[in-house]
Write a structure and sequence with these properties.
The complex is a heterotetramer, with two copies of chain A (about 300 residues) and two copies of chain B (about 250 residues). Chain A is an alpha/beta fold and about 300 residues long. Chain A has helices at about 10-15, 35-40, 55-65, 85-95, 105-115, 185-190, 205-210, 245-255, 260-270, 275-280, 285-290, and strands at about 5, 20-25, 50, 70-75, 75-80, 80-85, 100-105, 125, 140-145, 150-155, 160-170, 175, 195-200, 215, 225. In chain A, strand 2, helix 2 (about 35-40) and strand 3 form a beta-alpha-beta unit. In chain A, helix 1 packs across helix 2 (about 35-40) and helix 3 crosses helix 4. Chain B is built from seven helices and 14 strands. Helix content of chain B is about 25%, strand content about 20%. In chain B, strand 12 (about 190-195) and strand 13 (about 200-205) form a beta hairpin. Classes of the chains: A alpha/beta (about 300), B alpha/beta (about 250). Chains in contact: A-B, A-C, A-D, B-C, C-D.
Chain lengths: ~300, ~250, ~300, ~250
């Protein structure tokens, strides 16, 4: 197998993520790239604009670690649990530092990324009209529909400096198969200037070529490929491991104070070298509980004469 | 009437609003239970669509978030996030959307963004998520909420998701494709909206509840429909089907 | 297996396609729904607006048969061969009747359909500027980009009355798996008011549910489902049968005159009752040559705990 | 120099314009051969993208149309038609696009729509297809065409796909993201475009061709580059690799 763009997360972050960058760690609940987030924290990146519809725990951690200057988001909650306390502490009290926000609805932010991925001038959408958000966000404008004369809400394209996208399987050049909740993974990869892929499995190119409609990200938009099993824990990877819902609930407790949060980060992020060490700290029993039984897709034929 | 908790009552009443073949945008928790209850009873062909892109999910356990993997295993279809909002919601293909929030006002406007001012928040809430998009595009918005004075306000601190905004006349000028707020279901009553003004009004009192009790728990003297109804109490069948959906009482406690 | 929305092509066309309708028989070279087109011709529908980026042979046939009032298209050629002679005869000489045209580039027309499927007010796109087409087509307008001030080309949404989409496999309610060149199949189904699906195979719902990311069309947008193997010949269905390139080349000869065209249609369209009879007229030897060897996708697991 | 047909010469010369790792939007026939030849020689990592949505195809035979099933079997990726145009072409991710047409003028504008007037066509051609979209968005447009007087015109009857339109200064005002026409490769010469005016000029004469012969076959006296080059003749290696790609001489006849 060719080694292609294969590298370590340490190398990939060191090479492609710079202080002050606008970054998008993709994922809608599914396949949130925790391993990349932790490595960015270990490399002490500062003044980042963190973008994602659902910041999730990983951005809460990065805010607590002081990496964040601005949060671009549409739902800053702990999905299924409640608040993101580090986000609120930064916004309401400036701990560890004040952060700015750039806020949208889900449709608005996923629309910005889609418009960025497809390089549109702007994207008209049926939302925001009547809401109090547009007066707070100068990126939300209106345009007159030349066919009906109606005022239509529009958003500008989003083109982050870096996207990190976790995938189930890819080849060593980054041709990636993704399934389950595919969220904004494809759009993030096409919108960003630099793309880091982390993958549960690196497979032969022939596996990818056996099902080209499953390839949401083609290699030539990818800059680095990291083989990083369990990269998403406590988030999940469909067919590989489930979401660690217990941890999502514990996070609410862990983050009650900034000190307790930092204690967690010292142990689980700064106290380990990489994802492998992180996983070694988790009890096998807990890991076993997250392993699903296989549930295989019915294959299809791509044959031609 | 079966003995039931306030949550059970709200879910049972909300489920009745769903018709067979309706497409419903479902959130986790209470709305998920209402949709699943309707599917078990009068709406076997209910189409459940999730913000996460899953359509026609067939979960074998209670999903813990709208992005739960059990909503994908055995679903009919899954698409990307932009596609879900664009093809389904903006596409005008969703009949009913369930919303909740920290505050709701007399025009059905919902605040899930901030208590206090946007620039200097007293309490920063999670924000819209898909709520503003849902409110703007579904044919019927249904709100399920406990009837508490801090939740019902004359004017929301921040309008996250449009109800009838400043009233139905002005709302029409905005030309949203959605039908606007349809019902607010609390533990005390079901409220609907005046066809002309777009103002909230009590349409049906739940078993054992008086209009005075509603007024006591609402900060303004909410209007009453011309024909005030009595909510039929949940049946044994409704309650037992409902409890089977949440045996561990995660949401029905 | 539930019979769901299963019906015959005869019934489906009779019920859902009306004189004067704007119809979209979907497909970009792949899975062109010939069976539906032939049935529409047999039922003598008139004054249709025929829409597709690539009209292909089927629209050329429908124009010759006198079904067409207007052609909406972006490339009116016989792919890989040359002209569509019936189209040219109608446009240049009014035989068998004058037709109007509504013309776009590929991006413009596929954009109109995407905008229709997603119910956008209008869609901005990077094309048409500098071309002579906008002055000829009042549907092509420009809007000022509120972010840069640039003039941007826009197209309006397209929402046909009826779409016919052929798929490899679906269940009896119309949940459809499509692979290979997926063209504008999904957009046609979501944009149209009525949707007829024809399928190579009707499968159990469990087959569809085994791979939900492959389901491009969900049942609730579908009105009729027709089990119609070989519906696309001489076009092709990836994994089932190849394109009959010989016929595509013969078409050029067949259509040299209107009379020779009608002779073909009398035999192969009006002279048969349905697709089964059409297929019986084709030599088994020829059919065998179109059958590909299987080339199966590597399965994936959708398991969860 | 190897003995070769005019088509072989054009393909060999066109293939040289492709660099390793370039992304190329490929049509069937001649452009497909040029791309595949480049891939076999100097550009093993050439990325071939087709209008039909196929990316990184690996065909085991000559595709007969851009939608041929052999372009899908074993491809790296396949997406929908709108996605192909939006993510790849509008996305600015295509380096080179090959175009052809019935007419091309001195600013590289191409007509593939109509001879005569649009409303009363003398000859109705197939239309743009993706050509206008390709011309507007790729970094380099390369045109491969036989050098015939009826194809080269001072002004196209209908501008289907923009070259430099009325000249480079005015073209800049249109703010197309593409780089405009880059080369026109005929059986006589390679023409490029003046940096300042955007006018076509002869850049390189193919083996045995004089500038007079080019002028004889062009209806206007086409400009000549300050430094007129001689096209290096096709090598044995180029020709033998090329013939292996089209053994039945479908396109190289």
């Amino acid at each position: 197998m060719s080694t292609g763009k294969l590298t370590t997360m340490k190398e990939a972050v060191s090479k492609y993520v710079k202080d002050g960058d606008e970054i998008y760690l993709a994922g809608f609940t599914h396949m949130i790239p925790f391993a990349a987030g932790h490595e960015i924290m270990r490399q002490k990146r500062k003044n980042l604009t963190l973008c994602r519809a659902t910041p999730d725990i990983i951005y809460d951690q990065m805010i607590a670690a002081g990496c964040c200057k601005k949060l671009m988001f549409s739902y800053a909650g702990n999905p299924g649990v409640g608040s993101l306390r580090c986000f609120r502490r930064a916004l309401e009290k400036g701990v560890p530092n004040k952060i700015e926000i750039d806020e949208y609805s889900h449709f608005g932010l996923s629309g910005r990324l889609f418009a960025g991925a497809t390089n549109m001038h702007f994207l008209p959408m049926r939302t925001n009209i009547g809401s109090d958000l547009p007066p707070q966000n100068p990126n939300l404008k209106t345009v007159k529909d030349p066919y009906t004369g109606d005022e239509v809400s529009v958003v500008p394209p989003l083109k982050p400096d870096v996207a990190v996208v976790h995938v189930q399987r890819c080849d060593s050049n980054g041709n990636s198969h993704i399934w389950g909740i595919i969220g904004e993974q494809k759009d993030a990869a096409f919108a960003a200037r630099k793309v880091i892929i982390s993958a549960e499995e690196i497979v032969e190119e022939s596996v990818i070529r056996s099902d080209p409609n499953r390839t949401l990200i083609p290699d030539f938009v990818v800059h680095a490929v990291v083989h990083e099993p369990w990269a998403c824990h406590p988030s999940y990877v469909q067919g590989y491991y489930d979401r660690d819902n217990e941890f999502y609930m514990q996070w609410d407790e862990i983050t009650k104070e900034h000190d307790s949060t930092m204690k967690y980060l010292d142990e689980w992020v700064f106290g380990v070298e990489n994802r492998q060490q992180y996983m070694k700290k988790i009890q096998q029993e807990k890991i076993n509980k997250l392993l699903p039984k296989p549930c295989m897709s019915a294959p299809v034929s791509y044959g031609s004469v | 009437m079966s003995e039931c908790t306030p949550s059970e009552l709200m879910v049972a009443v909300a489920a009745r609003e769903l018709k067979d073949h309706d497409t419903v945008l479902v959130g986790v928790g209470i709305p998920n239970l209402a949709a699943n209850l309707a599917k078990k009873l009068q709406a076997p062909n209910l189409v459940m669509v999730y913000e996460s892109g899953a359509v026609g999910s067939n979960p074998t356990r209670m999903p813990l978030s709208i992005g739960d993997p059990c909503l994908v295993t055995g679903a009919k279809s899954v698409c990307s996030m932009y596609e879900q909002f664009a093809y389904y919601l903006q596409g005008g293909r969703i009949d009913v959307g369930f919303l909740g929030g920290a505050q709701i006002d007399k025009y059905g406007n919902i605040n899930s963004t901030v208590i206090g001012s946007y620039k200097t928040p007293k309490v920063r809430l999670p924000g819209s998520g898909g709520a503003c998009d849902i409110a703007s595009n579904v044919k019927k918005i249904i709100v399920i909420t406990p009837h508490e004075k801090r939740r019902f306000v004359e004017k929301v601190d921040f309008l996250t998701s449009p109800g009838f905004v400043d009233g139905k006349e002005k709302w029409k000028l905005l030309k949203l494709q959605g039908g606007g707020p349809y019902a607010v279901i609390t533990n005390l009553c079901t409220m609907k909206f005046d066809d002309v003004t777009g103002e909230m009004m009590v349409a049906s009192l739940h078993p054992g509840v008086t209009i005075e009790k509603v007024w006591e728990n609402t900060p303004w003297k909410v209007n009453v429909a011309a024909k005030l109804e009595q909510t039929p109490p949940p049946t044994e069948r409704e309650i037992s089907a409902l409890r089977a959906l949440d045996p561990s009482k995660t949401y029905l406690g």
